[in-house]
Amino acid sequence: MKRLSLQIIALAFILNSTILINNCMSQWIQTNNGILCGAVQSVAIITNNILVGTNNGIYRSVNNGSSYFLTANSTNLDIRAIAFGSSIFAATNMGVLISLDLGASWFGTPFPGINVYGLAASGNNVFAGTPNGIYRSTDNSSTWTQTNLNNQSTYAFAINGNNVFAGTTHTTGLNNGGVFRSINNGANWLLTSLNNQDVRSLFVNGNNVYAGTSGNGIFFSNDNGTSWSQSTLNNVGVFSFAMSGSNLYAGTINGGVYISTDNGYSWSQIGLNGLTVYGLAASGSNVYAGTWYRGVYISTNSGSSWFQTALSSKYIYSLAFSGNNVYAGSDYGYRSSNSGTSWLTALYYRPFFSYAANGSTVFGGTDSGVFRSTNNGANWIKTSLNNKYVRSLAVSGNNVFAGTDVSGVFLSPDNGTSWNQTTLNNKYVRSLVISGSNVYAGTDSNGVYISTNNGTSWSQTSLNNKTILSLSASNSYIYAGSNNNNGIFITTNNGSSWTQKTINNNNVYAIASSVNNVVVGTDSGVYISTNYGTNWVQNNLGFTKTPQIFSLIITNNFVFAGTYNQTIWKRPIQQILVGIQNISTEIPSKFSVSQNYPNPFNPTTNIKFAIPKSSEVKVAVYDISGKEIEVLVNETLQAGTYQTDWNASNYSSGVYFARIQAGGFQKVIKMTVLK
Q: Which residue from 90, 237, 266, 391 puts its CA 20 to 30 A from 437's CA?
């Protein structure tokens, strides 16, 4: 009797409780580290908090950059500067924000709703640089007044006691821009002798004042701004400064980070060459660099070496793999050798639209032709195909095919050394795939072409009037993803005929297939088929918001999904392909759930259910105490009959419960594991 009471209590708990899903391994997880956010324009440190101002808000880290979160009320704002006074302030494209909790949340101030380029604070005094000069608040941003410097675009500030320095723009031929100084806390301003430069950054240390310009390097003053001299760093744009001990750091345009150890007279480059560094912060031997569309880097040894921190948001054009290496094409080329846990930059300066790999030789399609690496992407050289936008690549043996914007398909018969244009020479080729001896090319508005002789000649298949965004091949099945909400087309006879599956009227940007399993990337996330594309189920569990999926690969027992501005996510392949199957095309007349079969079981059982209309469906497993132990399904399903499997290998013998919820319908079934 006591055992029955326990079961009734557990069952009541299951039916009436809302339980948090915590089984993250059954979801998509993001591969953050090293693939980083867009325009980082400011970095600041306060009491172990790192604040990062980007073109999409303010991010905060409390663990030295290992992870970041987007702070409250800052989303979608362009953050130009962060300053500390009695509170923390942020300059935005819509005025000035204030934070009273170390940057965790932000609120607007009564500042005019205009662009703010620069910001500084000291006590209750706050200074804001705008296209219309300088505004000042003397009461911690409660009220603002425009100063007499009201006709200069002002980008930077530095404060030393009652002396406030402001960096402004300069008009060629006139001594009307450079560094202004106020000796009365910003009430009045006078132009210093540095009066013919665009000044974008300022820093002060005692009586030493440093001014970074838009193209003429750094000027410095040893007498509090009275006279100025140009430093040896004299031919780059300098947009940020930071200091720790005797080390003064400067962030430059396309030149990375420089260091001076002699009060700014001489400078040497210490890292991040080729990157634009808009924000710098330093604390002890830790130096943080915020870059233009490369996110945040950290050095823990005063700039001797650098690595990327985990602030993620990128457009992933392409994914490929070879052995244990995964390659991602974005604004640059990236490589991961540990299943996406961390990423290294494979090639700077080039957006990678496509990849193909042949052993340790990897090819990258860019806006400047094809690059080749013979050491798994560690180093790259440009091939002789060097003047085309290469949108797609495919490789078979020594034959490499490259699909271009307007010049069709090029072929290299010698592993990328030389290239020849094929007879398919006037099409925009977005996708390529090789199946046996056949090569397929997906084009803009002209459908799919096939070559049966390694690209020597091409013929148009019966799919001849669609734009083909993606191609994949598995056994005799060829899959073609299209735009205009046309879904996917499937052929089993080399393109003589095609069958269309609209997949909820989605564009299909990416396809990955393996035997009978097909995964596609769409405007509404990921869809899965386990029967060669006959039936489809959406599978987005774990995404923070439904992403557009632009690239997919299956490798090392994972599916990797490259997204639009949400970087790269991955999920174990078996969780996707075994998780849920649509087993009938008939529309049920009512909700129903079948008893699991077999039962008792060891270790796997099937759970079948039917839904007569599109519903939010959750299938969860609970132990005898009522604790949720696994979520098998948690997504929107279309009307149909489905089967999901539960593998109890990790659980002991005993009684378990499965609860199936669909809209307002729910049912609990009892299952017995017997080992």
A: 391
Residues 6 or more apart in contact with residue 74 via CB below 8 angstroms: 57, 58, 90, 97, 106
* pLDDT reported for residue 347: 60
Torsional sign, CA 254, 58, 117, 43 = negative
Alpha carbon of 435 to those of 234, 439, 478: distances in Å?
Answer: 57, 6, 8
The domain spanning residue 598 has which CATH number?
Answer: 2.60.40.1930
Alpha-carbon distance of 184 to 161, in angstroms, equals 9
Decide: 182 and 189 in contact? Cβ < 8 Å: yes
Least confident of 118-132, 479-493, 536-550: 536-550
Mean residue pLDDT of the chain comes to 85
Residue 195: which residues within 8 A CB-CB, separation 6 or more? 170, 175, 176, 177, 178, 179
| Contact by Cβ (8 Å): 581, 541 | no
Residue that the structure tokens 């948090």 belong to: 20
Q: Taking Cα atoms as reference points, which of 551, 651, 539, 542 lies closest to residue 602?
A: 651
- pLDDT attached to residue 9: 25
Measured distance CA(411)–CA(223) in Å, rounded: 66
Pick the last residue of a domain from 308, 327, 354.
308
Q: Which two tokens stand for residue 180?
A: 């202004």
User: Do 560 and 617 lie in a common domain?
Assistant: no
Q: CA 128 to CA 184: how far, in whole Å?
A: 16
pLDDT at 26 over 80: no
- 232 and 116 assigned to the same domain: yes
Which of 577, 593, 610 is at the close of a domain?
Answer: 577
pLDDT digits (tens, 9 = 90+) for 641-659: 988 888 887 789 999 999 9
* pLDDT value at residue 129: 95
Tokens 């300088």 -> residue: 134
